[in-house]
Amino acid sequence: MLSCQKSTEENKTAASTDTAENPLLQVWDGRFGGLPPFDKVKVSHFAPAFDAATAKNQTEIDAIAGETAAPDFENTIVALEKAGQEYARFKTFFNIWSSNMSDSVFQKVEAELTPKAAAFNDKMIQNAKLFARIKAVYESDALKKLTPEQQRLTWLYYTTFVHSGAQLDSTAKVRLSDINQKLAEQFTKFSQHVLADENDQYITITAKEDLQGLPQSLIDAAAESAGQHKLANAWVIANTRSSIDPFLTFSTNRALREKAWKMFINRGDKGDANDNNAIITEILKLRAERATLLGFKTHAHLMLDDKMAKTPERAMALMEEVWKPAVARVKVEVADMQAIAKKEGANLKIEPWDYRFYAEKVRKQRYDLDQGEIKAYMQLDKMREGMFWVAGELFNFSFTPLDSIPVYHPDVKVWEVKDKTSGRTVGVWYFDPFARPGKRSGAWMNTYRNQNKLDGAIPMVSNNSNFIKGKPGEPVLISLDDANTLFHEFGHALHGLSSNVTYPSLQSPNVASDYVEFPSQLLERWFTTPEVLNTFALHFETGKPLPQALVEKINKAKSFNSGFNTVEYLASALVDMKLHLEGAKTIDPDKFERETLGALGMPSEIVMRHRTPQFLHIFADDGYSAGYYSYIWSDVISADAFTAFTEAGGPYDKSVSARLSQHVLSVGNTVDPAEGYRLFRGRDPKINALMEARDFAKPNK
């Protein structure tokens, strides 16, 4: 340990004295217009890289702001697009390490740099000369002569600066910057607390009888996890969704199910050093004050001002329209489960730790559909091949694996993406599929490099998941739900790979948060098409395809458990919105959650998908705050969009996929999303398709 500490200090000194050799700052070289040098990065590089990158970016901003020529699109807006490349590269590495490689050493650096980054951003936003130039371009008669894309980019800069406080007086600007730095500190603490609970808490099983009901793949994964914890003759259930959900589905040990469930849903809520309740209260206060400074009624009104929904009231109206039929469906689902429990002689009331277990029994009884049986056909590598095939059929993409590409962890694999007809390289796709300490839970997509025509850059994107490794050399089996999530995240990646814009700030998927989930939720619908299941759902032992009888059962059961799935999501989205509509009130998060769910009539058998103390979407940054409704908003659009295929030649209709690419995937933020959708669909989206897909009561309209 001492030698490691000495090495770290030596590296830190070396990195701090020679920023010219710092890999976080260097222009990427090699193939595809340059590749990120992940293999050269040390945690000690981050602090000096931040200082050097922000200093360089500040010099560029000062030059643009101090330009003596009259402001125009080229010397102001385009100049800003070209500035800050070193800082952009730094942020790419920083975000990757924060999400995927967050050990205790990096977390100290992260806690130091996040408030500094917030302060740097505020300094740029609050540069009066810079904003005056942006405003002059935005309000000029010359704007009307620019291309629609150039007008959209100018609008984006102007709106972003205004929403970030560029028009405030000097006193308000100082306070706003202070708020943003404090928020950055709290976001980092919140994230690190959740990660600590996920890394440090787990269930150790030492008796084989406690494994009863678990599929062999989960037992193997638990054994592998125990080995990572250096526990002999044991099995470990990790405190992540990819481990907990299947355990709750299959374990026959009710006491252990309850223990696992409580461990998972109480992350960040145990009254210890990792408790997030006080942090949430502080974040909400700071957001409310910021919204008031910026002239908005609440944080929710601020966040939705430039989204598709436009107002919290419109978002709430949609959620409430879906909530009632979803809760009604839950009552039916619970009654079905309760009947099975009674028939089996179990003297119990269905509790949250029972829901998945008894739902699986109902699934087997009603549809003769066994998740364990299906999982034998859901090989991770084969599902990935299925995604590639769909991308080829819809968008003419091909994927070729790449060797000897720098990566930040041995689990990461890389593919070159090409247009099948022309052979042109479209982009590069990274895949980081497995859970490990220091990696946040869940699944997500990242953009490593923005596509743009200014410098001819092709996109680099990643998909990141948390599947559990089994025995070395054996295929990783995933659940039906996990396979669906895999396709969802790949939809985000295809959005990024399809980008065809001039300016990097407008590239796909840099669109409104209540539109960005549309392409990802749309791609989920191809996972269960016969073409995918018949070809890529192959048994891991026999290699035989999923039997047609099972395919038919899967399709019949598509809306099964839709009450549970909708209610656990909507509960989170409604609590998120209601929290941020409270304004400056001091919020006790646990109490607010409890009382809000009670007023909504939340079924006692379900909890929020993301309870407030672990709700990373809304408290790890501002991205989805007052915006978790985006998933249901986007799913209305995606359900409606898929009917465009089914009304035409079917899911693989070439003319419809071409329109989708032309008007949605490739255009990024160059057009208003509502207009882009109308160009694709010929009209605005309707809610009917969503209600039908979830088998809810038809809307009265």
From TrEMBL:
Signal peptide (UniProt feature, chain positions): none
Domain called Peptidase M3A/M3B catalytic: residue spans: 248-694
Keyword entries, A-Z: Hydrolase, Metal-binding, Metalloprotease, Protease, Zinc
Gene3D superfamilies with a match to the protein in the record: 1.10.1370.40, Collagenase (Catalytic Domain), Neurolysin, domain 3
Cofactor binding description: Binds 1 zinc ion.
InterPro entries: M3A_DCP (IPR034005), MetalloPept_cat_dom_sf (IPR024079), Neurolysin/TOP_dom2 (IPR024077), Pept_M3A_M3B (IPR045090), Pept_M3A_M3B_dom (IPR001567)
Required cofactor(s): Zn(2+)
Entry's family note: Belongs to the peptidase M3 family.
Protein name as catalogued: M3 family metallopeptidase
Organism annotation: Chryseolinea lacunae
